[in-house]
Design goal:
single chain; about 375 residues; Rossmann fold; Glutathione S-transferase Yfyf (Class Pi), Chain A, domain 2; 2 domains; globular; binds adenosine-5'-diphosphate; binds magnesium ion
Length: about 375
């Protein structure tokens, strides 16, 4: 048993101050556009992951004109209550408290598994490789703390190495100076590459499964990790090739003043029937691929953490026909735990037929104005 029992938002987006209690199963936020439905999903996500799924700039989350926001939520997890409090103040480090004790971010994000699917996830399919790398980075960090730490170390080494390449271009000792940085880059970079390869394999299998169930058997969804140093089964081989690429490419690197090989340049290829979805898929196929990726992530989190992740679905239901809506609800019941949906249209009819236990909250101008339904609220 794992779910969010209640939430307080203060000066978060268009919420001045709100307290709300949740159902342990299904929760639905309804309301017209621009009322605050997605904002509340964003708050739940932030509480678990200390990051928004819409922006990288936390300042945007503070109510316009304010410099701070506060979130407090109580998770029930394996019979224990965890009171999580997050305080953001501009230009100060984020404060995360769990049961009144300070927690490091990388530990916190492994504790409360959550998966979100929102219209913005199309970016994962459509945009540049950096977005897909960020997706992999965050998802692996949710169950593997060492990955998060390796990433931080890699970024530090990369920065130093790039600085050397830029500033010491004409220094005759440059080769000697670079050697230890190459070694460090290859060592930590190889760990990152192999964690990603493992994740992509697992994600690929699960995404294909969901895709076939949801969209029919015909099409084939495949994921492949693309390494700038070449993808190999054994880390030793990757290490050797990575080293080789750095040695061979040094002249070009000096010209450009930056590191040309490594996981910071890799990509995730997402294909339907072999064709890269980024270039060849319709809008609908892109959405389907993105949703499959997210549901695969939910299955992985469940396996890795032993908890059914909290699932947030923003504006998803309106686009599906009845059969798919029903399949999605069934899938969520089997693989997700607590679920939060937003909808601008009424989905009560469908829910009344398929669900017994749910709560509907009407959102208006940054306030929950009514709460109905549900058995175990
Ligand atoms: N930082 C902010 N401060 C105050 N209001 C905000 C902030 N960010 C967004 N909003 C407001 O929140 C509303 C959009 O909320 P959102 O949850 O995205 O709507 P929806 O109900 O359509 O999902 C808009 O009215 C927008 O102006
Ligand atoms: Mg919205």
């Amino acid at each position: 048993m794992y779910y969010l029992t209640n939430l307080i938002l203060k000066q978060f987006r268009n919420y001045e101050s709100q307290y709300v209690e949740f159902n342990r199963g299904l929760n639905i936020f309804v309301g017209s556009n621009a009322q605050g439905k997605t904002n509340i999903l964003e708050a739940i996500y932030y509480l678990s992951v200390t990051r928004s799924f819409r922006t990288r700039r936390d300042q945007e989350l503070t109510q316009i004109g304010n410099q701070l926001f506060f979130l407090k939520g109580v998770f029930l997890k394996e019979e224990f209550y965890h009171v999580v409090q997050i305080s953001y103040q501009r230009n100060s480090p984020l404060k995360i408290l769990s049961n009144n004790e300070k927690v490091e971010r990388f530990l916190h994000i492994q504790r409360f598994p959550v998966v979100v699917f929102s219209p913005d996830d199309l970016m994962i399919i459509r945009d540049s490789p950096a977005i897909r790398r960020r997706f992999l980075n965050l998802e692996i960090s949710k169950f593997k703390g060492t990955y998060f730490q390796n990433l931080k170390e890699y970024q530090r080494v990369l920065l130093q190495r790039n600085r050397l390449l830029k500033e010491n271009r004409y220094n005759s000792h440059l080769n000697k100076m670079l050697d230890p940085w190459d070694q460090a880059l290859v060592n930590v970079g190889t760990k990152i590459i192999h964690d990603r390869i493992e994740m992509v394999e697992d994600l690929g299998k699960k995404a294909q499964f969901f895709f076939n169930q949801m969209y029919g058997e015909k099409a084939n969804l495949t994921l492949n990790y693309r390494c700038s140093v070449g993808c190999f089964e054994q880390p030793d081989e990757t290490r050797t090739k990575f080293h080789g690429a750095l040695s061979e490419g040094r002249r070009i690197e000096l010209k450009r003043g930056s590191t040309m090989y490594g996981p910071h340049l890799d990509d995730l290829k997402i294909a339907i029937n072999g064709n890269n979805t980024r270039y060849y898929s319709s809008q609908g196929q892109k959405r389907a691929a993105a949703l499959s990726l997210k549901m695969a992530e939910a299955m992985i989190l469940k396996e890795k953490t032993g908890l059914n992740p909290v699932i947030l679905l923003d504006d998803v239901f309106s686009e599906f026909d009845r059969v798919r809506k029903e399949y999605l609800l069934l899938f969520l019941k089997e693989n997700g735990g607590q679920c939060f949906l937003t909808s601008a249209v009424d989905i009560d009819d469908l829910l009344k037929k398929t669900e017994k236990d749910y709560k509907v909250m009407a959102v208006e101008q940054g306030r929950i104005v009514s709460e109905t339904g549900g058995l175990s609220c």
